[in-house]
Amino acid sequence: MSADKTTLIRKEIQALNAYHVPDSGDMIKLDAMENPYQIPGELKDEWLLRIKNAEINRYPDPSAQALTRALASYMGVPLYNSRGRSERQAEGEAGKNSVILGNGSDELIQLMAMAVAVPGRKILAPAPGFVMYSMIATFTGMEYIGVPLLENFSLDMPAMLATIKADQPALIFLAYPNNPTGNLFAEDEIIEIINAAQGLVVVDEAYHPFACTSLMPRLGEFDNLLVMRTVSKMGLAGLRLGLLAGPDQWISEFDKIRLPYNINILTQVTAEFALKHAHVFEQQASLIRQQREWLFNALAEFSQFNVYPSRANFILLRVIDGDASNIFLALKQQGVLIKNLHPSGGVLHQCLRITVGTPEENSSLIDALKKILNSA
Ligand SMILES: *Cc1c(COP(=O)(O)O)cnc(C)c1O
To answer: Mutate which of 204, 239, 316 to test ligand 1's pocket (most atoms within 8 Å of Cβ)?
Structure first.
């Protein structure tokens, strides 16, 4: 007798394609929303000294307390809700906000899903959206509902509200700004969704360093709002570190199913070091925001493209004359890797997504595009 994969592994898992990350070799990498800048040389020695002193023979602080405090403070998590101090004391700690850290925000999405997963329960997000929401719905045996965005990528509010009413999703994810479209949804519409939802609404602010706007200050005004951040897009994607903030009544439940030591000691040490030098990352984000404007204008010069404004560190465009997949492949041959969204279909028909790189990388991309499109 041998074990049988077709009966042992859940059907929906067998049907999945593994999350595919293309090998970029030594190409110019403008496909994954990474910050193109390294830790500056003059800070590397200090970082390495901290790494050198890290006690990797010991388990790390299981709840990464020092880092949690530093991140919560840096990211502006309001410690309590907007009610007054005396009211709060009168009702105990009920209005308190808490935070939990994850091995990337991906792990936090998974924790939330695991905590609410009951067969038949649903996760809702606007579509197109971040792929991990639907993948994790499948991992945890939940149903995923993608509500199509309008043509201009704003929320289809009648459809959102009707679906919330009909399907009562346990979790709603709103990426703010949205990936892969790059736009911010209207804040008053997000609030309407929070008020309409019976379940939890997670505002995913992965691109906060480039959006410069946030729902974080409103935490605690609603009992079902959570805000998620990550250090990935600000320049520390290799660390795998995300933060989820919201009312303690939810966070304390998620914390029960978090694996102990999920934030390893090298991540804890490095992130604490990075926060001490947060201005370095803020300067990098500011450069990227400036380059985003440069790249937007340069791309908009091509008559073949319809370029969408972005509040993130990437730009979405639609090829209106020509073929997105051909352009993607031709760029690859020129040594520039971007993301081809055309295969996703729907509103992403003929769309390409380009991460903002360094000025040199962005110029190389534009030069390559000129070669490809002007000789076509
Ligand atoms: C990139 C991205 C994340 C980041 O996930 P990490 O696991 O923290 O790297 C989260 N949400 C959205 C919408 C993203 O685009």
So the answer is: 204
Q: CA 2 to CA 246: how far, in whole Å?
A: 47
Mean per-residue pLDDT, 160-175? 98
Per-residue model confidence (pLDDT) at position 93: 47
Predicted local distance difference test score (pLDDT) of residue 159 = 98
Q: How many domains does the chain have?
A: 2
**HSE on the CB side for 354, CA within 13 Å?**
34
- Higher per-residue pLDDT: 328 or 5: 328
Domain-terminating residue out of 209, 238, 265: 265
pLDDT of residue 2: 84
**Do 336 and 202 reside in the same domain of the chain?**
no
Is 46 within a domain? no
Same domain assignment for residues 147 and 218:
yes
Residue 125 shares a structural domain with residue 225: yes
CA atoms within 13 A on the CB side of 368: 20
Domain end marker among 231, 265, 299: 265
Q: Which residue from 19, 111, 179 has its CB within 8 A of the most atoms of ligand 1, so it is best to mutate?
A: 179
What angle, rounded to 10 degrees, do the helices at 248-257 and 104-116 form? 100
Q: Is the CB of 116 under 6 A from ligand 1?
A: no
**Ligand 1, atom 2, residue with closest C-alpha:** 206
What is the band of 355 on the pLDDT scale with cuts at 50, 70, 90? very high
Q: Would the CB of 128 count as within 6 Å of ligand 1? A: no
pLDDT score recorded for residue 90 = 52
Cβ 313 under 6 angstroms from ligand 1? no
The reported pTM is: 0.94
Domain membership of residue 244 (yes or no) is yes
In which domain, by residue range, is 236 found? 57-265
* Pairing assessment for the beta strands 122-127 and 97-102 based on DSSP bridges: unpaired
Q: How far apart are CA 46 and CA 201, in angstroms?
A: 40
Residues 172 and 311 in one domain: no
The answer to whether residue 14 sits within a structural domain is yes
